[in-house]
Design goal:
The complex is a heterodimer of chains A (189) and B (410). Helices cover 40% and strands 18% of the residues of chain A. Chain A contains 5 helices and 7 strands. In chain A, helix 3 links the parallel strand 3 and strand 4. The longest helix of chain A is centred in the first third of the chain and has 21 residues. The radius of gyration of chain A is 24 Å and the shape is elongated. Chain B is an alpha/beta fold and 410 residues long. The radius of gyration of chain B is 27 Å and the shape is elongated. The chains are: A alpha/beta (189), B alpha/beta (410). Chains A and B meet through strand 3, helix 3 and strand 4 of A and helix 6, helix 7, helix 10, helix 11 and helix 12 of B.
């Protein structure tokens, strides 16, 4: 064999070896199954007329850091006297305005938003139906100090035990009453 | 003083619905109503107000007199005058059932005499303040539970309650006004009422009454003006009360009109704007939700129906992301009571025009179109094309308010 051919073989072998070494652990990259997957969809369920600003800001920060989409979801309760697929215009009057406020503020921070609405006999039922239909990577929930507002402790327990996603529960300090409400809604809505 | 009642047709329909649900023939006669509800239950009429002093009890007493004049046996089961002279005078001429005395921790308290009323068995019983909490030692903890017993005995009841006493609204009102009442009633109590009559008063009129000493004694007026009776609180409470009755009316109407199919919205005759109908043009992407919300809000204000239309190209297939967006739009339409229509066509303006004529649309809403590229720049823009095809139909382009705040569109 000519010297040139031998040299070429050696160079190719060195290059291949370097590349393989780059990919294989422990010096190279981890197998894909062990790499942290980017979080894409962050669910932010809420009820009523306002949402904790702390929970919202946490969702925005995480979405910015992970290039994720925030999915605010308004949960509505259907009275037992009505069919489950009944329209809920009064509750939606509050919910739609708040979704608009959340979307305006999130977009103002450069975070994409994809809103949802879900209804059920209870807030947990509405949330369960939403989680059955779609996949989320993370759920951020605001726990309040009042058991009568929004999701109850039973609902949070169910979230932690049964939902196949990261669950982040935020409970603001008792003196932190800051909220996102429709008061700051821009424009005619 | 304005009054908003559920229309007579809805009142009749709600009773019919209850009878139909119970499997009995609905009785729509206008004669003696005692015990004419399902299973012989008495008829409950609740007078709903936004605050003390609007005239709920006064109206209840006037209706009591009307029932008595019509020949019915009427008794006041419990009346709270709060020292108001006008209210006390309005009760004259009606039999007032004596209260019973209940001793609790050495204190004598007066409560409604439920056993006495049941024994007396009038045709109509006036029972004030549905959300009252009884003293310990009587049959029930709450007055609305006493009322249930009276109704079950076939006695018709007229009662009163303020909107902030409703369970589901208590938190919201606390949030909006800083006022929290401790006595509440489950929403189901009001939902089971055969009639809900809102006693409406403008905040200004109510404040005039307060200052004139018609609601509280002079020494309490200043405190009331500085706390609960602030005009912004009253305006909020009034809106909540009106909405509550509007939803009750809307839901009772919807529950008596069976849908033909699950995808078909129930026809509504509630339109206040004669002949108006909105059509929003959407596509399956996240931004469409915003357009739908804005369109629905406009429809609500006009008191009219909303249709949503997506015109898909025959050769196009949906990406998984678009499938998700479309499913979310279907859900949103269903919860809002809007109708989602999907048409296939390669001629968007004509497809929209066909649907608009079929639906008798008077108002089209659409988002901002994507910038035209290539040969499409030569085409007439969609809004202008629609105006040519649909003379007399308003076309509105809904701005993206997020860009007003300086954020880029996703």
């Amino acid at each position: 064999m000519s010297i040139a051919l031998v040299a070429a073989v050696i160079v190719v072998a060195l290059v291949l070896g370097t590349v393989i070494g780059f990919w294989l652990p422990p010096h190279g990259r981890l197998p894909s199954r062990n790499r942290p997957q980017p979080v894409k969809r962050i669910l932010l369920p809420f009820t009523g007329q306002a949402i904790s600003r702390r929970a919202f800001e946490a969702a925005v920060r995480l979405a910015q850091a992970e290039n994720a989409t925030i999915m605010p979801a308004f949960l509505a309760r259907v009275p037992r006297s009505l069919p489950l697929d009944s329209p809920l215009p009064v509750q939606c009057g509050d919910g739609m305005a708040l979704l608009e406020a959340i979307e305006q503020q999130a977009h103002g921070k450069g975070v994409p938003v994809d809103a949802r609405v879900s209804r059920g006999r209870t807030y947990q039922d509405a949330l369960r139906r939403l989680l059955e239909d779609e996949q989320f990577d993370r759920v951020i929930v605001s726990a309040t100090n009042s058991p009568r507002k929004g999701l109850t402790s039973d609902d949070l327990e169910w979230l932690l035990e049964d939902v196949p996603a990261e669950v982040l529960i935020l409970r603001p300090a008792p003196e932190d009453t800051r909220r996102i409400s429709t008061a700051g809604l821009a424009g005619h809505f | 003083m304005a009054e908003l009642e559920a229309p007579a047709s809805v009142r009749a329909e709600s009773s019919a619905a209850a009878a139909l649900a119970a499997g009995t023939e609905p009785d729509l006669s206008t004669g003696d109503r005692a015990g004419n509800g399902a299973n012989g239950r008495g008829h409950l009429r609740v007078f709903l107000g936004m605050a003390a002093g609007v005239g709920k009890t006064f109206r209840m007493l006037m209706e009591g007199h009307a029932e008595q004049n019509a020949g019915r046996d009427v008794v006041i089961g419990l009346l709270e005058t709060h020292g108001r002279v006008d209210t006390a005078l309005a009760a004259e001429g009606l039999e007032i059932f004596s209260r019973r005395v209940v001793t609790y921790r050495g204190t004598d308290l007066e409560e409604m005499d439920l056993p006495g009323i049941l024994s007396r068995a009038p045709q109509v019983c006036l029972i004030d303040e549905l959300a009252h909490t009884n003293a310990p030692g009587v049959e029930h903890k709450k007055r609305y539970e006493d009322v249930e017993d009276v109704l079950a005995a076939g006695i018709d009841v007229l009662s009163t309650v303020n909107v902030q006493h409703l369970d589901s609204l208590n938190d919201r009102i606390d949030e909006l006004t800083g006022v929290r009442v401790r006595e509440t009633i489950p929403d189901a109590v009001l939902a089971r009422a055969d009639e809900v009559v809102i006693i409406d008063l403008t905040p200004e009129e109510l404040l005039d009454r307060l200052r004139a000493g018609k609601i509280y004694p002079q020494e309490r007026i200043d405190a009331a003006l500085n706390n609960f009776f602030r005009i912004e609180n009253l305006a909020t409470l009034r809106e909540v009360a009106l909405r509550q009755v509007a939803e009750e009316v809307g839901q009772k109407r919807l529950s008596t009109e069976p849908a033909v199919t699950r995808d078909e919205t129930i026809a509504s005759d509630a339109s206040q704007a004669v002949g108006e109908r909105l059509l929003a043009l959407i596509e399956p992407y996240p931004g469409a939700q915003r357009l739908v919300r804005r369109a629905w809000r406009s429809a609500q204000r006009l008191g009219t129906d909303l249709d949503l239309l997506w015109v898909s190209h025959p050769s196009s297939t949906l990406t998984p992301e678009q499938e998700r967006s479309l499913a979310a739009l279907r859900q949103l339409a269903s919860v809002l009571g809007a109708r989602l229509l999907v048409e296939e066509s390669d001629d968007l303006p004509s497809a929209v025009a066909d649907v608009a004529r079929r639906q008798r649309t008077t108002y089209i809403l659409m988002g901002r179109s994507r910038p035209a590229r290539g040969l499409t720049r030569l085409r007439t823009p969609l809004p202008q094309r629609l105006m040519e095809l649909l003379p007399g139909v308003d076309v509105r382009i809904v701005a993206d308010r997020t860009t007003r705040q300086g954020a880029e569109r996703p």
